[in-house]
């Protein structure tokens, strides 16, 4: 890690996860009212004959524009709690590295923390068994520790309330394995995601992140490729155990999707009429994180990027439940 403060942050996060069994457990889904069922009612007619009741069907118009689906409705609202309408289930690893920062790459509306030109970054790799758009995988490159994020906590379209987030982790790039996952990220939450070829190799004595491929030879249809070996080490529990295991945590987290950053649940006081313009304020969502198992495991970085210093380990979390709330 790049600073003593960052070391404390990581140790605190690890301490919280390692004591998950002593926290309040996962709440079962609440009962939801079934949506109203639409029934077809034939047009009433006073005629006593089928001939009089007959009407020519309305033919399609070739001049009228056909209404399309709202892009914000991509994906299923599959949440278990009305306050968190979207849910993801699966497993993930966080592989920390020291990364050299560049003045040319800075997170908007927040401050990048560093010491001697380095911050805490790395990668987060996720395998979703359940999501609003079905199973898919995700690879996020982490750019460093950030602070003082400017966010809007007012009602969208009604008022603006500027607040400031404390400390978080910023992601520079987010890659997903399917086109529909890219669509839901961009259109529902405003995440600038990209499609990539993310390959999991189950066998391997230890987890290994890499090598990465920029597809210079054109073998991946122009998409980047990421390879994760020894992925069986990320499966702490088998499928049968996951179905019966209890999740612990319900840890609240803030999320600013437009800059791909997760934040500690701390909002500093703000004011309704802030000095930051509405365009500069980050949209804010609340997340809730629960899991059944957590381990620290060895993890190799087979192809470190320029300026990257891998730390040789990974935080592995299995049978995780990530719940996303509205803005």
Identify the notable features of this structure and list them briefly:
327 residues; mainly beta; 8-stranded antiparallel barrel; 4 helices; 17 strands; globular; disordered N terminus
Reconstruct the topology from this structure.
Elements lengths: L3 H15 L31 H4 L32 E15 L10 E3 L4 E13 L5 E17 L9 E15 L2 H11 L3 E3 L1 E5 L5 E7 L11 E5 L9 H6 L3 E9 L4 E3 L3 E5 L10 E2 L1 E7 L1 E9 L6 E3 L2 E12 L3
Parallel strand pairs: 4-13, 5-6, 7-9, 8-15
Antiparallel strand pairs: 1-3, 1-16, 1-17, 2-4, 3-4, 4-5, 5-11, 5-12, 8-9, 10-11, 10-14, 14-17, 15-17
Plain-language structure description:
Strands 1-3-4-5-11-10-14-17 form an eight-stranded antiparallel barrel. It is mainly beta. The protein has four helices and 17 strands.
**What is the tally of helical segments?**
4
Largest sheet geometry: 8 strands, antiparallel, barrel
Average the pLDDT over all residues and give the rounded result.
80
> Which range does the strand content fall in?
35-45%
How do the strands of the widest beta sheet line up side by side?
1-3-4-5-11-10-14-17
**Ends: how far apart?**
32 Å
Q: Give the oligomer, counting copies of the same chain as homo and different chains as hetero.
A: single chain
Overall shape: it is: globular
Q: Can you give the helix content as a percent range?
A: 10-25%
Instruction: Give the topology string: H per helix, E per strand.
Output: HHEEEEEHEEEEHEEEEEEEE
Class from secondary-structure proportions? mainly beta
Question: Which stretches are poorly predicted, pLDDT < 50 over at least 5 residues?
Answer: 1-69
Q: Would you report the number of β strands?
A: 17
Alpha-carbon Rg, integer: 24 Å
């Amino acid at each position: 890690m790049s600073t003593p403060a960052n070391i404390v942050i990581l140790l605190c996060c690890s301490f919280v996860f390692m004591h998950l069994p002593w926290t309040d457990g996962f709440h079962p889904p609440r009962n939801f009212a079934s949506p109203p069922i639409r029934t077809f009612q034939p047009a009433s007619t006073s005629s006593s004959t089928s001939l009089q009741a007959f009407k020519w069907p309305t033919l399609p118009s070739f001049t009228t524009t056909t209404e399309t689906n709202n892009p914000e409705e991509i994906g299923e609202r599959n949440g278990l709690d009305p306050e968190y309408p979207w849910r993801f289930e699966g497993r993930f690893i966080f592989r920390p590295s020291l990364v050299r920062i560049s003045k040319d790459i800075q997170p908007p509306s927040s401050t990048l923390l560093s010491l001697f030109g380095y911050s805490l970054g790395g990668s987060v790799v996720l395998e979703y068994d359940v999501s609003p758009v079905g199973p898919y995988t995700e690879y996020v490159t982490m750019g460093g520790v950030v602070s003082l994020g400017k966010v809007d906590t007012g009602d969208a379209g009604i008022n603006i309330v500027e607040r400031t987030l404390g400390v978080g982790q910023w992601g520079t790039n987010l890659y997903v394995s399917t086109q529909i996952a890219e669509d839901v990220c961009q259109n529902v939450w405003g995440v600038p995601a990209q499609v990539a070829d993310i390959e999991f190799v189950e066998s391997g004595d230890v987890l290994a992140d890499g090598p990465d491929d920029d597809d210079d030879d054109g073998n991946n249809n122009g998409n980047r490729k990421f390879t994760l070996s020894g992925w069986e080490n990320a499966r702490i529990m088998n499928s049968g155990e996951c179905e019966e295991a209890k999740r612990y945590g319900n840890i609240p987290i803030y999320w600013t999707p437009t800059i791909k950053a997760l934040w500690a649940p701390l909002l500093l006081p703000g004011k309704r009429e802030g000095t930051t313009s509405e365009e500069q304020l980050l949209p804010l969502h609340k997340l809730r994180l629960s899991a059944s198992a957590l381990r620290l495991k060895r993890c190799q970085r087979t192809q470190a990027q320029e300026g990257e210093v891998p730390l040789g380990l990974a935080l592995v979390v299995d049978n995780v439940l990530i719940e996303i709330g509205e803005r």
